Amino acid sequence: MPGIVIVGVQWGDEGKGKATDLLGERTDWVVKFNGGNNAGHTVVIGDEKYALHLLPSGILSPGVNAIIGNGVVVDLEVLFAELEALHARGVDTSHLRVSANAHIITQYHRTLDKVTERFLGKRQIGTTGRGIGPAYADKINRVGIRVQDIFDENILRQKVEGALDQKNHLLVKIFNRRAITVDEIVEDLLSYAERLRPMVADTGLLLNDALDAGDVVVFEGGQATMLDVDHGTYPFVTSSSATAGGAATGSGVGPNRLDRIVGIVKAYTTRVGAGPFPTELFDENGDFLRSRGFEFGTTTGRPRRVGWYDAPITRYATRVNGITDLVLTKLDILTGLDQIPVCVAYDIDGERFDEIPVNQSDFHHAKPILEYFPGWKDDISRARTFEDLPLEAREYVLALEAMSGTRISVIGVGASRDAVIVRHDLVD
Ligand code: GDP
Ligand code: IMO
Ligand code: MG
């Protein structure tokens, strides 16, 4: 029975939250396996709009067991603020469980994220400033604080001392900031311990048991393929494994439990923060996509960079993740354009590249080779079958499908929960 992974294909904000929500009624478990509150998922249910950062979107579906997996970095203040905001709106979150092995984002991670970005100057990554990179750096450096550590004050104190030792030298001597005391961190983390205790579990065991019992488990990826620390446009990436492999390591199930890999891809491209983006638009077409698509960050409110659809990126994501199904979102945003350009390959110093070049310096100055597809004028937001779409929209979708190396199973035609066309069932 299905373990279904949801991953972003491009640079994030493809509409992963909506895709998880779409599966909601047929999902028993949803697990966030990477990232932290750098993510921003907007889900529209009826007249209600929910913006979630740390919690998986699946928590909005009644009766679904939500898991924060070991691969996540957890800011406890944000965790409880989000839970309280959902309680206030009547959402039941009692099914949430948090991995004992997930790492904690502390105040020093948030501070370091901001000061290192400032020091990078022109070379800055444009992080969300949430402490994500420094928290993962500590994890890999083996000086991180895990969720389970806050239940033993002695251990916690020792670990915080170890972590702050070098950091205070850095903060004071290099970054000209005040030193952070062990006491203030320990006190802050301990203040969450009793509220957190009932949520903490061996989440890998829970998930394996659920899969053994035939439950449907959705692994909800944050960020996206091109932001993945291994497979993205390094160093302009996030610090976690946002691709399908991360679903296994970040949740404690074997890769053979992942039956379907669903890639979420927008009908055009967006990116927040710095880094290469071959199809980026700086003209009125860019303004059109940004305002029509409401492309402003859910987490930071920054205007998103926008560009045309990039077919080699989808092909790359299909390979890297083993995508079995694509969900093409925001097709409705393209309505009204006379023609729709699609990047089919790149021109790099006069040479044609059909795939993303191996050398990233080449990618930085790749020019898109565009193919033009006829646009459509009719409103498509009420289309519910593929045949309801105008001919030009169908041809656009079929062309993207042919270039992607996998099938387009679902098409998004509006922000609301039901504004989708399902061509192939994602759970079978
Ligand atoms: P995520 O980070 O991948 O979950 O995506 P975000 O929530 O940051 O951004 C996607 C935005 O697009 C959200 O505001 C969604 O409500 C919206 N959205 C998702 N699918 C569609 C669609 O098919 N059409 C339109 N118009 N909006 C959509
Ligand atoms: P969702 O899940 C878009 C980007 C940041 C920055 C880089 C590193 O909503 O798709 P970080 O704070 O993670 O160290 O920042 O990654 N970034 C995102 N961009 N959507 C996201 O999440 C993102 N999470 C991180 O803008 O360029
Ligand atoms: Mg987002």
From TrEMBL:
Keywords: Cytoplasm, GTP-binding, Ligase, Magnesium, Metal-binding, Nucleotide-binding, Purine biosynthesis. It is found in: Cytoplasm. InterPro entries: Adenylosuccin_syn_GTP-bd (IPR018220), Adenylosuccin_syn_Lys_AS (IPR033128), Adenylosuccinate_synth_dom1 (IPR042109), Adenylosuccinate_synth_dom2 (IPR042110), Adenylosuccinate_synth_dom3 (IPR042111), Adenylosuccinate_synthetase (IPR001114), P-loop_NTPase (IPR027417). IMP binds at D13, E14, G15, K16, N38, A39, G40, H41, T128, R142, Q223, T238, R302. Pathway: Purine metabolism; AMP biosynthesis via de novo pathway; AMP from IMP: step 1/2. Its EC number is 6.3.4.4. Binds 1 Mg(2+) ion per subunit. PANTHER family: ADENYLOSUCCINATE SYNTHETASE (PTHR11846:SF0). Plays an important role in the de novo pathway of purine nucleotide biosynthesis. Catalyzes the first committed step in the biosynthesis of AMP from IMP. Homodimer. This is Adenylosuccinate synthetase. It comes from Microbacterium yannicii. The lineage of its organism: Bacteria, Bacillati, Actinomycetota, Actinomycetes, Micrococcales.
